[in-house]
Amino acid sequence: MDDYSIVNYVVNAIIIFAILYFIHRRDRNSLIDLGDEVTIRGTIISRVLNWYIKTVKKSDVVKVQLAGNYVTLFNKSDNAYDIFPRRESAKDIFEQAQTLFPHAEVIKIDG
């Protein structure tokens, strides 16, 4: 019985540390530069599990917007790609988007 408790404790500790690691790391890879293209990982699921990712050409993004805690990228055909980061990292992602898309119009909405 004691062996089971120790194994259970160790497994739970590993799971908790893995979750904390992914939560801490998740917003850093919201925008990934691939040369002429950028991979957009807008949701937590896409940043942690690599699902629901979108790839766009840098030349297609014409507008970068920060509204509250959300960063939105607009392309030439007026489609929007939303990124939902944590409150603390929204400005960092917005600055990264400005660097990746220097030709894009920049809009900042306070709110």
Overview of the molecule:
The mean pLDDT is 85. The protein has helices spanning 2-25, 44-49, 90-100, and strands spanning 31-33, 37-40, 54-57, 61-67, 70-75, 80-83, 105-109. A hairpin with a 4-residue loop joins β5 and β6. The chain is 37% helix and 30% strand. It is elongated and about 60 Å long. It has a four-stranded mixed sheet with strand order 6-5-4-7, with helices on one face. By secondary structure, it is α+β, with helices and mostly antiparallel strands. The chain has one domain: Roll (PH-domain like), CATH 2.30.29.
Would you spell out the secondary-structure blueprint of this structure?
Blueprint: H1 2-25, E1 31-33, E2 37-40, H2 44-49, E3 54-57, E4 61-67, E5 70-75, E6 80-83, H3 90-100, E7 105-109
Parallel strand pairs: 4-7
Antiparallel strand pairs: 1-2, 2-3, 4-5, 5-6
Spell out the key features of this protein:
7 strands; three-stranded antiparallel sheet; elongated; single chain; four-stranded mixed sheet; alpha+beta; 111 residues; PH-domain like; 37% helix
Summed over residues and divided by their number, the pLDDT gives a mean of 85
State the helicity in percent bands. Answer: 25-40%
CATH architecture: Roll
Q: What is the helix/strand order?
A: HEEHEEEEHE
Look at the structure and give the CATH class: Mainly Beta
* Intertermini distance: 55 Å
Number of strands: 7
How would you sum up the global shape?
Answer: elongated
State the strand order across the main sheet: 6-5-4-7
CATH level 3 topology: PH-domain like
Q: Major sheet: size, sense and barrel closure?
A: 4 strands, mixed
Which class best fits the helix and strand makeup? alpha+beta
The amount of beta strand, in percent, is 25-35%
- Over all CA atoms, what is the radius of gyration? 18 Å
Contiguous helical run count: 3
